[in-house]
Amino acid sequence: MSYDVVVARTVGVALSVALSFPAQAWDLEGHRVIAALAERQLSTKAKAALAPILKGAKLSDREICFWADDNKGKRPETKPWHWVNVPLEAEALELARDCPTEACITKQIDAQAVRLANSALPLAERREALAFVVHLVADIHQPLHVGDAKDRGGNRLEVMLPGNAESTDLHWLWDGPLVDHALLGFKDPAAGLALRYKAQDVPGTDGDPVSWANESHRLVQKIYRALPAGGPPLQLGPEYLADNASLVRAQLFTAGVRLASLLESALARSAR
Prior knowledge:
Blueprint (H helix, E strand, L loop, with lengths): L2 H16 L8 H15 L2 H11 L7 H4 L1 H4 L24 H4 L6 H13 L5 H18 L17 E3 L7 E2 H6 L1 H6 L6 H8 L12 H17 L8 E2 L4 H31 L2
Parallel strand pairs: 1-3
Antiparallel strand pairs: 1-2
Helix pairs in contact: 2-8, 2-11, 2-13, 7-8, 7-13, 8-13
């Protein structure tokens, strides 16, 4: 059986399974990879500062990296924290236009980092803040979390991959099947990505969520320019997954490095 056939069948199965679940940013696998990459980057001092907050857990455990998605139902006020909508034609994010309140991803990354850094808070509150930081930094690097309000960041844009009987939406395609495809062949994705990329080559490690959002917005503009006409659903070619795999891998790695840097900064402030 050829490699192309194996990949096609694997992706087809992944998409079929993905369609049975509600959309979650980067899906659990993406969040785990990003958190594991951050764990690899943290200094010994930062890990020691996290120990009483984590209580034996790891950043890449579901109870940390995916807690924010798992608890949306219990905390409905936090749902808008996972994205910020920027008009597709806009040059960049404008907070006054796109996030006039505190309920968007850029402001909440900052707010939760401040909570994490506050050593006067109970450990339970700092653990919650940590879970939000780990999750939201990952979310902001999924480009469609800085999508256009017109189609809810691709959630209302129906697409079809070759060989699949059902369509999905563009947002979920980037959350799940694209991640699965990008990580094919990686026994340990975090270790594999750490070998492929260098942390020192990642820009924007100064912890500025607005610059990260603008970066994702520019990627969204490229993603939409590359979409075919027609539909719904838009008929994506067999090359779509392969063409975007390297971008997904780079975004996962970049998010991990930036997350580690943000955590180092917050934990350093808490020690003062």
